[in-house]
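C-alpha cells help. Consider this.
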Amino acid sequence: MSALLRQRFPRLYRLFKPGLLTLLIAGCATVGVGLSADELFGKTVITDRRAEANSSQARHYRQDIRPILENRCVVCHGCYDAPCQLKLSSPEGIMRGANKTLVYDGTRILASEPTRLGIDARTTEEWRKKDFFPVINERSQTAEINLQNSVLYQMLTLKANNPLPAEKLLDDDDFELGLNRSQQCPTQEEFAEYADKHPLWGMPYALPALSNDEYSKLTQWLKDGAALAADLPLPDAIQAEVEHWEAFLNQDNLKQQLTSRYIYEHLFLASLYFSPEPLFRNQQPINRPEYFFKLVRSSTPPGLPINPVATRRPYDDPQVKRVYYRLLRDSSSVVAKTHMPYRLNNERMDWIKALFIEPEYKVDYLPDYKPETAANPFIAFSQLPVNARYRFMLEESEYIITGFIKGPVCRGQVALNVIDDHFWVFFVDPEMHKDPDYSQFLIDQSDHLRLPGEAESNSGIITNWLRYSSLHNEYLDAKNVALAEKFPDGNAVDLNLIWRGNNSVSTRKKQSSSGAIQNANAALTIFRHFDSSTVVKGMVGQHPKTAWVINYSLLERIHYLLVAEFDVYGNIGHQLMTRLYMDFLRMEGESNFLALLPQEERVRLANYWYRDASDSVKQHLVSYEKHILNDPAITYHSQNPQAELYEKLRQHLQPVLEDKYNLARRITPQELNILSRVNRVQGQAATLMPEISLLLVENMQGDSQVFTLIRNSGHSNLTGLLYEEENRLPQEDYLTLVPGIIGSYPSAYYRVSSFRLNDFVSAVSGLTDEDDYEKLADRFSVRRTDPQFWTHSDQIHQWYLRNDPLNAGLLDYNRLENR
C-alpha cells in the first residue's frame, strides 16, 4: 500500500512523515477507500508469537524490547486497572490485546464475566471470543502490514508525531487525567477517528514520547513481526524445589489435603520464590530472585502439564474430582502494586509441618465447596488447630495484610475510605489462643461469623447488610459473655496480651543455628493514599490517631472478606457489602486496642475518632459491660495515656521492630536536622502536598537517596460511604517523611541537591496556597511533562532495585498529578 501511494501520489507521499502516512493508510478502510480489513491486510491468522527460548528472536525480545516495554509501557499497563485491560507485562498479555469493558465498575447491576490473564482463557483465540482485540498485527505478515495493522505502533507513532505541548502543565481541555477518566480503546478500524479527535493522545499517554532509539527499536521489532519469547527452562535446582513442594502439597491423606487447601486459600496471590535465607529473622536475599511462581489449583497432578482451575474465588467449587496444588511459573514483569514475595525453603516446609502435620489431631472429612461452607473459614477449617491457623497468618502478617493492600479489592476511594490514612497494627499473642475453650467458642460462633461472600457476586444491599450486621452484633455479645467468664475481675489485660514476635513453632524443638527469632511482623504500619494504600513492618511515622489489635478471628475475617472472597467483577451489591462489613472489622480492631487503655480514655478516644457519628457507632468501640469497665493491668502516669501506650508498645516490641523506615538510622545527623522538620508540617501546608511523593536527594559525590513523602488526611470519622469530603478535616492533615520507597502509585517526583535540601523543606513548610505549591514544583518537581521525566523514572527504579531488591517493582503512573 505504501509503495502504491508513492507511485501514484509522489507529492502526497513526500508531504507526510512516514508515521503519519501509516496512520493515513490505517484509516483507509473507514474514510472512503471502501476496502475491508481482509482486502487491505489479509485474513486473520492467530499464532503464538513466543519464539523458542534460545532463539535469536527470543534473546532480542528479552534483552532489547522487554526493558523498553517495562519502563515505558508497563508503568501504566500492568494490572487489573490497566487502561483497556491491556497488560503489557507478559507475552500472554501482549498477545491477548485490549478490551473496552471496565474491570472496576462500581455501578454494575449484575456481575460480569472475569477476564483474568492466565486463568479465564488459555489461548489468544479464546480471548478473542471474550471481545479482546489485537494490538499487534494478526493478518498478513509483511513488514508494511505489521506496522499498518498494529494499534500499538499507531499509538506510538501518534505520540512521536504529536509530542506533548512545550508547557509545564497539560491543558485540561486537551487531556483527561485521573483514575476515573473516560476510557478510550480504539480498535484498528477505529483508530483514524481516534487520532483525528485526539491527536495528542498517543502513547505513552500524557507523558513524554519515547526516545528516538526506543521508538526505532520498537518500530523495527513490530515491523519484523513482534516476536516474543518463550520461557527458558528452569535450572535443575529450581525444578527440583518445585517437584519437592508439589509432592508435599499433594499427599493423599486427609490432614495434608485440608492443610494444602488452607495454604492455597491464603497464598494464591503470593509471588512465591525459593531462597535459603532463614525465616523470621529479618534477612532478605541480596538480589531479586530470578524465578517467581503462583500457587494454583490444577485438574492435573504433578508430573503433567498444569491445567489451572478457573473459578471466581479460591474456595469456589472446582468442578473436578480432585484438585492438585501446583506451582505455576510467573515470568511476567515485577509490578510493585501486585508484587507480594513469599519465601519457600526447607525451613518453611518444616514450619508448615510443625503447625499442621505433626500435631496429634484427626481430620475425618474434607469440607464441601458450597458457599455457606467454603466462604466461612471457621466452618471449612474447623478441624485444623486454631493456633496453627493463626500462626500461619500471624508470622507472615505483612504478607496477609498486603493481600488487602495489593489485591484486587484495593483500588479506588470507595474501597479504601474504610480505613484511616495512618495507623499501627499489633497482634494478640498466639499463646492466648491455645485454650481449647477458644477453639470451641469459634465453632459455636461460626454462624455468627459468616461473611458476605457466601452471597457470591450478585449480592443485594439492604437485606444482606441488616443480616450481617445482626450476626456481627450477636458475635460481639457472645464474645463479651465469654470474656466475662474468663476474666471475672476484668483487669487481667496487660501488655502480655500483645505478641512480641520472639517465638515461632519452628524453633521449639531445637534452637536454630541462624540465631534467635526476631519477627518484625509483630508490628505493622498502614498508610492510605486516598485511592491506594501501603503496609510496611514497624511503627513507622508519628503517633497515629488510631491503632488496631488483631486476634485470630479478626485476621481470618479480614483475609476472607477483602482477599479470598472479594470479586472485582462482582455487582454493586457485592462491592458495597464488602465495604460496609469492613466497618465492623475496623471498629473491632480499634476496640481491641482501646481495651489496653483506662475506661475514661476509651470513651474520650471513641468520641474523638468518631466525631459527628451516631452513638450506636461509638458503642461498637466502647463496652459498658461491668467486666470491662475496670481498667487494664497497665499503669499510666501521664495525661496522654494513648501516647504513653504507644511508647510502652514500642519498648515491648523493641528487639524485633523493623527500622528500615527510621529516618534517624538512615541519614546523617545534619540531614536529620533538616528533614525531620517535614514531619512537623500540619494543616494547610500538608493539605497542599500530593498524596504520595518520591524525593530523590543527590549529594556532591553523585550518590543518591530516595525518600517517600506521605500526606495523611484528617477525618472526623470514617462512617460515610459516599461523602468522605464532608468528613474531611484538613486542619488535621500532616506529613510523614521516611527513607526508601513506600507505595506503588507516586503522585509526584521531586529532585533536590543536598545543598538545596533546606530550601526544599522550607518551601514545603511554608505552603499556603496553590501558587506556593506551583513555585515549589517549578523549583524541585520532575513533572510528567518534563523532558527528563523518563531519565528520572529510570533512576528511581534502578535505586529501588538496588536498595530493596526483594520488594522492588515497577511503579504505576496512572495517578501522577498535573500540577
Observations:
- The first strand starts at residue 50 and ends at 51.
- The chain has a mean pLDDT of 88.
- The two ends are 44 Å apart (CA to CA).
- The CA atoms of residues 494 and 633 lie 5 Å apart.
